[in-house]
Specification:
The protein is mostly helical. The protein folds into four domains: 50 residues; 206 residues, Alpha Horseshoe (Serine Threonine Protein Phosphatase 5, Tetratricopeptide repeat); 57 residues, Ankyrin repeat-containing domain (Serine Threonine Protein Phosphatase 5, Tetratricopeptide repeat); 105 residues, Alpha Horseshoe (Serine Threonine Protein Phosphatase 5, Tetratricopeptide repeat).
């Protein structure tokens, strides 16, 4: 029953292909068909063939691929350009959409999706009067419900609050689902109406901004029944400071309940509400988001259970945020109990030379062990902007040109400390890194760019002036 290795389903799983796979396994192994089907299901992480079939049906029903969006009409082109797709978002597209609407304002007439995106309540009212069912019918280039087009539209930052709210009320009043959404490329965390309203994401607030009236529109949706446990909205907004979205979601029950209709559909493929908010706490601690940590703790998020396999205080200490340790202990978290390797990391990132000297005195091989175990620790020190820790690590023989991730503490070879300093505009850190031997011509492994390229991409003029003369 273990002939099929555990693996992820393809992006667009086919039930026909899965049936074929089960039959081939039956013929190859001598299993009965139901046994082969069960083996295939378990190989993909499902307890039964029925659950696998149901999941594939959900993916077929809700998966969307924005790069395949077809715009065959003026309204379709407007919608394709006007809305965040989390594929090719950038302000120039929204400018194009705005010009299309200015030249042809009539495209909202008779088109429920264009009327919703344009927040043209008058045109929308006329469409719904003739066809009330249009309020919840999928369509347009992205195969979304109309409420999604309103939530994801970004072509007009000057849209009035009244127009946005009236458009939403008309759709909701005609039966639109406040929890409408889709699965981006079949990934299990749904992009809901709330996700679109709150905006942002990995590309940041310039390329993926919030809706101009995000809080008011989100409040209206929550009052209409949108579930506050929106994992994708939480993910998209976790990268930047600011907690207004969390405050609103907590007001409506974030972290409680059963997770709403999407979790009932997808089951354990989605985090539970409690897991969602604890994930937010882990990220906030890791990235030193003090205000967010305080908010989450004040709202009762559990600080006593492990986060990512360690205590909350150990996570704070080993990611360079010693200031959070005492706060977390004061709110019920157990004090850090660090193994020597973690104590080394905590001492370095706190730039606590006396504690570090004691650790090295008791274990002279510790620095060498850590160079092998955490070669990119110096990259994380740069990610948290800790020039003193960078100096200490370089003095202990860590390679200043080591590549690691800077969004999370990881030795996955993405970029160097100098790349991070250049992107952040941290002139003092960049100067220190260069003095310590950082190579200005080294290219990162993700974008094949030099630190100067990063400085240019992020518009860091002081770093451009520093790096241009020394980059080949």
């Amino acid at each position: 029953m273990n002939d099929v290795p555990a693996t992820r389903l393809p992006e667009q799983p086919s039930l026909g292909q899965l049936r074929k796979q089960a039959k081939e396994l039956r013929d190859r192994s001598g299993l009965r068909l139901w046994e082969a089907q069960l083996a295939v299901a378990r190989g993909y992480g499902f307890a039964s063939w029925a659950r696998l079939k149901r999941h594939v049906g959900l993916l077929t029903r809700y998966s969307r691929f924005p790069e395949r969006a077809i715009a065959e009409t003026g309204a379709g082109t407007f919608l394709r350009l006007a809305c965040l797709s989390y594929y090719d978002d950038e302000p120039g597209r929204w400018d194009q959409a705005r010009r299309i609407l200015e030249r042809a304002p009539g495209i909202a007439e008779g088109n429920v999706y264009a009327a919703a995106a344009a927040a043209n309540a008058g045109a929308l009212r006329r469409v719904l009067a003739a066809d009330p069912g249009a309020a919840s019918r999928e369509g347009g280039p992205f195969r979304w419900e109309p409420l999604c087009y309103l939530a994801y539209a970004r072509h007009d930052p000057g849209i009035s609050l009244e127009a946005a709210l009236e458009t939403a009320r008309l759709l909701l009043g005609a039966g639109a689902d406040p929890n409408a959404g889709y699965l981006w490329h079949g990934l299990p965390t749904p992009f809901t109406v709330l996700t679109g309203v709150f905006g942002e994401g990995e590309l940041g607030p310039v390329r993926q901004p919030r809706h101009p009236h995000s809080l008011a529109l989100a409040r209206l949706l929550l009052e209409a029944g949108a579930d506050p446990n929106d994992g994708q909205a939480l993910y998209n907004r976790m990268f930047e400071p600011g907690n207004d979205h969390l405050e609103l979601l907590f007001e409506f029950g974030l972290g409680t309940g059963d997770g709403g209709p999407w979790r009932r559909r997808l089951g354990d493929a989605l985090d539970s509400p409690a897991e969602m908010v604890r994930g937010q706490l882990a990220w906030a601690i890791t990235h030193g988001m003090t205000e967010r940590v305080h908010l989450l703790v004040s709202r009762g998020v559990d600080v006593t259970a492990p986060l990512r396999g360690v205590t909350a205080t150990s996570l704070a200490a080993t990611t360079g945020h010693a200031d959070l340790v005492d706060y977390l202990v004061g709110h019920g978290a157990p004090p850090p109990d660090l193994a020597p390797s973690d104590a080394f990391t905590a001492a370095v990132l706190a730039a606590d030379r006396s504690r570090l000297e004691r650790l090295l005195a008791s274990d002279p091989g510790l620095a060498g062990h850590m160079r092998a175990a955490r070669p990119a620790l110096i990259t994380w020190a740069a990610a948290v902007g800790n020039a003193a820790a960078v100096e200490i690590l370089a003095g202990l023989g860590f390679d200043v040109n080591a590549k690691g991730r800077t969004d999370v503490p990881s030795d996955q070879p993405w970029q160097t400390a100098l790349h991070q300093a250049a992107g952040d505009g941290n002139l003092e850190l960049a100067q220190s890194l260069l003095r310590l031997g950082a190579d200005p011509n080294i290219r990162d492994d993700r974008f094949d760019s030099t630190p100067l390229g990063w400085a240019r991409h992020f518009g860091q003029q002081a770093l451009i002036e520093l790096l241009e003369p020394i980059t080949d």
